[in-house]
Every structure is written in C-alpha cells, then in structure tokens.
Design goal:
15 helices; 6-stranded antiparallel sheet; Beta-Lactamase; 4 domains; alpha+beta
C-alpha cells in the first residue's frame, strides 16, 4: 500500500482534478498541489518537491503538458505520468520523446492509477540508486546540493579546479558532469572569440565577465556571462567559488530592464512613492522592476540571476504572485486588487497587490504589479470593528438592564398595591413574589457586573 508519497496533480478540468485528488487521498497518497497550466506546474513542482506528478497533456495557456513535463524533468528530475483522453499517434510520439514514467488513457480505473504510480516511483528509485552506484561522487552532500540547483552551476576550488559541476552546466558544453570533475578551470572556460585579454604588464591575464566563453566538447566556443558566489566549509578550509553561468544573449536582453517608455516612467513613479513594483510580459518574464522590489526579492531568497529567468522556474516567486492568477489576468484584462497576509519573524503584515494590465490595441501585453503595505490600515479596520462590537455589547447589556428593571417593577408594584388596599398577603403568594424578585435582582446584578467590565475595557483602551 502507498506510504504517503507526495503527488502533484496537473489538470485543467477542476472537477476531474478534484476527483483524482479524492481518489489519491483514499489510496493513502498526499496531494501537495494542483495546477491548471504548464507554467504553474513548473512553479509548483519547484515549490512542493513532489515524489511524482500526474500531468494532463492538454492544458490551458501557451504551454502544454508535454513541454511542461520536459522542463520539470530537466530542472528537478521528477517521475511524471501523462494523463490524456487523446491516443492519436502524433500526441503519443511527442509524449514518448520526453520519456515519461507512465501513460494513462482517460477514463482509467483506480487500480490502474495506483499500479502506474507505484511502478513509476519504484523505477525512479532504482534509477537514482544506479546513478549513484555508477557515479559515487554524486553521493556527497555537496554534490547533491549542486546538482539540485536548477541553473548552470560550477564550483571551483581555490586552486582553480572544478570541484563540482551540475549536469545542467555540463550539458551547455556537451559534456557529462563526471568528465569535468577535477579538471582545471581553463578546460571549461576560455576567452571569447580568441580576443585580447586584459594584461597589466606582469604576465597576469584577466578575462572580464562579458569576455568569457564556454569551451564545448566539439571545439566550438559559446559566449556566456558569469556571476559569482561562495561556498563556505567547516573548519579552516578556504571557501570554494560558486559560479553561475548565463548565456550572453539572455543576459544582454534581461539585464537592462528598460522596456517601453511607460514601464520606465511607472518604475520611476513607484520608486518615488516608496512602493515596490514590477512588470511582467506574456512570456512571464520580468520586463522591469524598481529597486524596492529587487530588495524584497533578495529578502525572499530570489537572486538577481533568477530574476532574469522565466518566473515559473523560480519557485519562491509565488511570494509575489501565482502563475495561474497572472495568466488569467492576461486573458481577462481586468485590474485586480488583492490583500495577502504574511508573517515575518512573528510580525504580521498585510500587503495589497494592485495588478494593472498594460494594453496595446486593447490586448494586454504586460501586467504591472504595485505593492503597498496596508498593515496600519488593516489594523485600523480591525480596531474599528472591535470597538463597534464592544459598544454593541455594551448597548445590549444596558438594554438588558432596562428590561430587568421593568420586570422587577411588576411584582413589587403588585405587592405594594395589595398592601395599600389592606389585603392580606398569603404565605404562598408572598413566597412566590419574593423568589421572583430575588431571581430578577440576581440577574440584574449580573448584568450590572458585565456592564462595568465592558466599561472598564473600553476606558482602558
């Protein structure tokens, strides 16, 4: 029986998605998320780290399930089972080309679903085990961390040798990662176009970040731009150098963040107003952002490098927006305002997101998002509601006191009337009136105590 394996469902028909979710839970699986578009599937795969993905082939949006599955496998190496009602040859050939773990035709039985899931999980575990046995260096914790980064990454030792490299980076140059481990850095990086490096007359050669190229296995050179970081080790070991590789073309395109005149003006205005803001295009890439947003992204753990990539490949970007919601805004063209609640180090913040579609000839081409901290306003609303509630309860208590006062008056007036007329008070009647008055007085005292408590609360605040 399943032991709580985590599964992500990617299905654009929500009724079908909910039905699959119920079946999976009944079988003992944990459903960690649901997505209806390919871009959202990639984002949620990075966020939730499922053990397996059930992927419908026909999805809403630009990206279908096959394209999404291919990218997820490249980024996260997860087993994927395709679900589809279409068994035509072309679809089947495209699906087979990405090597899925399984393929289920709708409608399918629960037993078929469970069997496919368990077989896929088992095959994936065996595949990982074989990979570790063939390449034992991948067993190191550092190697696993480097390999898990969904970006081209090289780790250099202080002496300039390649200590670790992930397969994403090795593939850029046409290598397998084990072919590059332990080799000197100049076996992988070189001077762009064989041009002149910067020399200072002392025999020292410097290659600037925009002059670097990758040396491919076939002898060709690929221009790239590098970004550096550090990996610190325990003890007194010197740090290693973490190098992120970006194609020169994408770096040149994404680094300017200038965009149309309107985007530049919007960023300038929002910066002056101290409001974080960013603009995305239809391919879900950032077309512009201001320094306040860049600072927030850094605090959320999103590097500058990741901001230059498709946002659905940046799991932590969900802090600023869900891919499905953004895609829906491109379709609807409506302005949206939404307040989200966040907790930072036990401090609660309320952030209002205003999303404005920017249109050309009536068709949305970009979405501008402006963020505002509305915590003070929300607290003011909560405080007003609290005060309203307290005064309402105070009024209700006073009303109850008035009603009890009227009730007490009736038996007392009745007894006084009998006494004024010289009528004898029978023992049973007197006892009944006494009990009634005693009960009313007790309720009257309780109401007064509650009134005093409420009054004190309001006075103190």
């Amino acid at each position: 029986m399943p032991q709580g394996s985590k599964i992500l469902i990617v299905e654009d028909e929500m009724l079908i998605s909910m039905e699959i979710k119920q079946k999976l839970r009944a079988m003992g699986y944990e459903v960690v998320g649901q997505a209806i578009t390919g871009e959202s599937a990639i984002q949620k795969a990075g966020e939730t780290k499922p053990d397996l993905i059930l992927m419908d082939i026909r999805l809403k949006g630009e990206m279908d399930g096959i394209a999404a599955a291919k990218r997820i496998m490249e980024l996260y190496d997860l087993p994927i089972i395709f679900l589809t009602a279409h068994s035509d040859k072309a679809t089947l050939e495209r699906a087979i080309a990405v090597s899925p773990s399984g393929y289920l035709l709708k409608p399918f039985k629960e037993r078929e679903l469970m069997t496919n899931i368990e077989m896929s999980l088992h095959k994936h575990r065996i595949k990982q085990k074989v990979r570790e046995e063939v390449h034992p260096e991948a067993l190191s914790e550092l190697g696993k961390k480097i390999e898990a980064i969904p970006l081209p990454v090289v780790l250099l030792s202080g002496t300039g040798t390649i200590r670790e490299i992930n397969q994403v980076a090795a593939t850029l140059a046409g290598f397998q990662r084990q072919e590059l481990l332990g080799r000197p850095v100049y076996a992988f990086f070189g001077l762009l176009g064989g041009g002149d490096a910067v020399q200072d007359g002392s025999g020292v050669e410097m290659i600037l970040p925009d002059q670097v190229s990758l040396k491919r296995k076939d002898g060709s050179m690929v221009p790239v731009t590098l970004t550096g970081g550090f990996v610190f080790h325990e003890g007194n070991q010197p740090p290693s150098y973490l190098i992120l590789i970006e194609s020169a073309e994408s770096a040149a395109t994404a680094s300017s963040h200038i965009g149309p005149e309107m985007i530049r003006h919007l960023m300038a205005v929002t910066t002056a107003l101290r409001l974080p803001a960013f603009v995305i295009d239809k391919s879900l890439m950032l077309a512009g952002y201001n320094p306040l947003f860049a600072e927030l992204a850094r605090k959320a753990g999103i590097s500058q490098y990741m901001l230059n990539r498709p946002l659905y490949e940046t799991p932590k970007f969900s802090f600023f927006g869900d891919m499905q919601d953004l895609q829906e805004l491109f379709r609807s063209g409506d302005v949206e305002r939404r307040i989200r609640k966040y907790t930072f180090d036990e401090t609660v913040k309320f952030i209002e997101f205003t999303r404005i579609p920017l249109k050309k000839e009536g068709i949305p081409t970009h979405i501008a998002t402006i963020m505002a901290d509305v915590t003070a306003e929300r607290h003011a609303v909560f405080e007003a509601e609290r005060i309203k509630k307290e005064y309402s309860e105070l009024y209700s208590t006073l009303e109850k006191i008035r009603e009890l006062s009227a009730e007490i008056r009736t038996p007392i007036q009745d007894m006084l009337l009998k006494m004024s007329e010289g009528k004898p008070l029978e023992s049973g009647y007197a006892r009944e009136m006494t009990d009634q008055v005693s009960d009313l007085m007790s309720r009257f005292d309780t109401a007064w105590i509650r009134y005093a408590e409420l009054k004190d609360q309001i006075t103190k605040k």
